[in-house]
From TrEMBL:
GO terms for biological process: diterpenoid biosynthetic process. Transmembrane segments: none annotated. Keywords: Magnesium, Metal-binding. Pfam families: Terpene_synth, Terpene_synth_C. InterPro entries: Isoprenoid_synthase_dom_sf, Terpene_cyclase_plant_C1, Terpene_synth_N, Terpene_synth_N_sf, Terpene_synthase-like, Terpene_synthase_metal-bd, Terpenoid_cyclase/PrenylTrfase. This is Uncharacterized protein. Residues 9-147 form the Terpene synthase N-terminal domain.
Length: 437
């Protein structure tokens, strides 16, 4: 259906959007690429056909930009009045506002129209939440979920779990597609369980945690991080390797930051230091590709935002927040606000670095985009790799909130405790009986 000539463009766009949010688009990568290539090549004519349809224009913009196509923000000029402001009649078209809101988060540097669109839609979507009746509860759920954080910043797999439930209530829901999404979710979930068993055996056989009992035993959290970066089954090797690397990095981080004595750290540094690194090698960091630079910068800033206070209290190195406080002579709250502004600016630059004609393949680009999404999930409410008791009253690990994909609103606030690793087996979806496919 995606590439059938008889299917109208609006239906193609909605189907592609549903496939992506249901987490099954990876099964149809070639078909989606062909469809978007075709739409982009005819974009001017398509926009003429969609004239005055803000919902469809915003959707085509979001999907094309999300796949790296260079689509101009001028596509939205038709929805502005003679003063250059967005027309007031858009304020009552909530689905159009919602799509325009999501599209605005693919902004790049210098795009004032998208910034205006973002401010305009946030204002009117908040008004909708304040004034709408309970009869529009399905639409309210979409709006509230979007305002909590935009689709562009969400961890894909966690959003998929929420969207499957939301899609099931849609009037235009495709039953076969919904059943396929549920089946695929459970199949992939079983893949995760097998991988977690494998890295758990590796970690146990390594015995590092027994030798360094003070370090964080965060195997499940480190594995969750790898899912956030690349959830598709084909990336199994990547997830296993990244989980193992992150476990070792966590242990080394604890030795350096908290528990190692000066003599021990000097010996450790000498053991791992390479004498072959030259100034020329260091200078190469300045020439990193933009997509790597801004993805890494966002990871750094999100980490600082979530870990700054506890690490500063124990005498760790200065974070970006404290450097900002010192450099600009401002309060910690003002510095945090400034860092959030920097984060937003970095997202603009990262969006600009995502191009369909990039020298990097799609897998690399997708992971680079997912790194800051995962970092945001882990650090937006504190340090997601430790128990942040400033979020909740002091509780034992066993009764702290688990990461349950069925709990969509709080799933990005707390992570699993060491004794709660059964979450992967607790997130299966209910499938209807009968012959599905």
């Amino acid at each position: 259906m995606i590439n059938e000539e008889t299917v109208v463009v609006d239906d193609k766009l909605e189907l592609i959007d549903a496939l992506q949010q249901l987490g099954v688009a990876y099964h149809f990568e070639e078909e989606i690429k062909h469809a978007l290539d075709s739409i982009f090549s005819k974009l001017d004519g398509i926009c003429m056909e969609m004239k005055d349809n803000a919902y469809a224009i915003a959707l085509v913009f979001r999907l094309l930009r999300g796949h790296g196509f260079r689509v101009s923000q001028d596509i939205f000029d038709q929805f502005k009045d003679e003063k250059g402001s967005f027309k007031s009649n858009l304020s009552n078209r909530i689905k159009s506002l919602l799509n325009l809101y999501e599209a605005s988060y693919l902004v790049v540097d210098g795009e004032d129209t998208l910034i205006e669109a973002q401010n305009f839609t946030i204002q009117h979507l908040n008004n909708f939440l304040s004034n709408s009746s309970h009869d529009s509860h399905k639409l309210r759920d979409y709006v509230a979920n979007a305002l909590e954080q935009p689709l562009e910043w969400r961890v894909e797999r966690l959003h998929t779990r929420w969207f499957i439930d939301a899609y099931e209530k849609e009037e235009k829901m495709r039953p076969l597609l919904l059943e396929f999404a549920k089946l695929d979710f459970n199949v992939v979930q079983n893949t995760y369980k097998r991988e977690l068993k494998e890295v758990s055996r590796w970690w146990s056989n390594l015995g590092l945690w027994e030798k360094l009992p003070f370090s964080r035993d965060r195997l499940a959290e480190n594995y969750l991080w790898s899912i956030g970066c690349a959830f598709e089954p084909k990336h199994s090797t990547f997830r296993l390797a990244q989980t193992k690397a992150n476990c070792l990095i966590t242990a080394i981080d604890d030795v350096y930051d908290v528990y190692g004595s000066l003599d021990e750290l000097e010996l450790f540094t000498k053991a791992v230091d390479s004498p072959d690194v030259t100034q020329e090698d260091l200078n190469l960091f300045q020439d990193y590709p933009e997509i790597v630079r801004w993805s890494s910068m966002l990871l750094r800033l999100y980490n600082d935002l979530g870990t700054s206070k506890p690490e500063h209290q124990r005498g760790d190195v200065a974070k970006s927040i404290h450097c900002c406080m010192h450099h600009e002579g401002i309060t910690e709250a003002a510095a945090c606000k400034r860092i959030k502004e920097l984060i937003y600016d970095c997202w603009k630059k990262l969006n600009g670095a995502r191009r369909v004609d990039s020298a990097f393949n799609k897998n690399f680009t997708d992971i680079a985009m997912n790194v800051p999404r995962t970092a945001r999930c882990f650090y937006i409410h504190g340090d997601g790799t430790i128990w942040d008791l400033t979020i909740s009253p002091p509780l034992s690990p066993d009764v702290l909130v688990r990461l349950r994909l069925t709990s969509t609103r709080r799933c990005e606030t707390h992570l699993v405790s060491p004794s709660s690793r059964s979450w992967l087996s607790e997130t299966h979806l209910t499938l209807p009986a009968g012959n599905w496919l």
